[in-house]
Amino acid sequence: MKYWNYKNLDLSKIGDISQVAGLRRYEFKEGKAKGVEAVEIHTGAGLELTVLPGRGMDIAWISYRGVPLSYMSKTGVVSPAYYESAGMNWLHNFFAGGLTTCGLLNVGGPEEVEHPVIGKRTYGLHGRISNAAAEQVSLFEDFENGEYKMKVSGVVKEGILHGESLTMRREIETAFGKSEFTIRDTVTNRGATAQDIMLLYHINLGYPLLDEGTKVECNAQAVLPQSDEAAAELADAFKFGNPVQDIGERCYSVDLIPDADGTVSVQFKNDKLGLGVELSYKKEQLPFLNEWKMLNTKEYVVGLEPCTALPQGYKNAKEAGSIVTLQPGESKVFEITYRVLDNQEG
Length: 346
What we know:
Order of helices and strands: EEEEEEEEEEEEEEEEEHEEEEEHEE
Distance between the termini: 8 Å
Helix content: under 10%
Strand order of the largest sheet: 11-12-13-14-24-20-19-16
CATH class: Mainly Beta
Largest sheet: 8 strands, antiparallel
Strand content: over 45%
Shape: globular
CATH topology: Beta-galactosidase, Chain A, domain 5
Number of helices: 2
């Protein structure tokens, strides 16, 4: 049976738009996810995603025409109430999902930094922002200029007495009939002094989109391995096989070539399924792309990670000159479009 084509929609045959598309807001009621607020988005074109205002406005599940596109780790969705910042304990809350946001002070492994008032501060793995619940959460869906638009927005804060005061306003927007959505973040320094930030979008692709024969396609001028193991497999950086028991991660820094308007894109394709995902964004906003290749048994996932700096920690980024510094009151916008590539019939 062919998939229903949204282009054939006849509004005279439905009572309410929720029959075919819309937003659904709810809260998890049990386990470690209890209390986490969620919003499901159904575009009517087969694309469904679950936004988590209760977890940094991140995205848990993404699917298209019933095919899962994202990866869910063995933790499942976990409330920020269980967050442990020390060392590598961030991993206890790392559900992965369609998107986990990393930052805003550190992207990479844990490390100690010196603060002029507080003294020694320890930054845990990948920062705190994913483990903060959003406020000012807002849902919008209605016809606008002949298009039925859907948007979820919220503000996530990161602050400490004597230190940083940052907000990230996230908007996730799509429309009826679309097989894509846009993530738009506005990060603002609300403090009285200049503030360094780091930001990485941990976008995770999983089975069955990830499978033997899946590949990455992009216009890259350099692909740099981040370990000896990755270097030994450089020729296969963009190719993926079946899971291997106890294999470690392979990470690659990918330098993408922008088009005439400064946009870069990377595609993740499974030709056997006739499906793929494309990420596109401005290189000026997110100069780096990290590929996290994790093909272990039960931990079978590839992360495509646009970022302001590679995930090698604050000190390395500062030394490399890749830190983004916001002056008091200054904002910076980051925007990514996540698009499903569909070669299926029907």
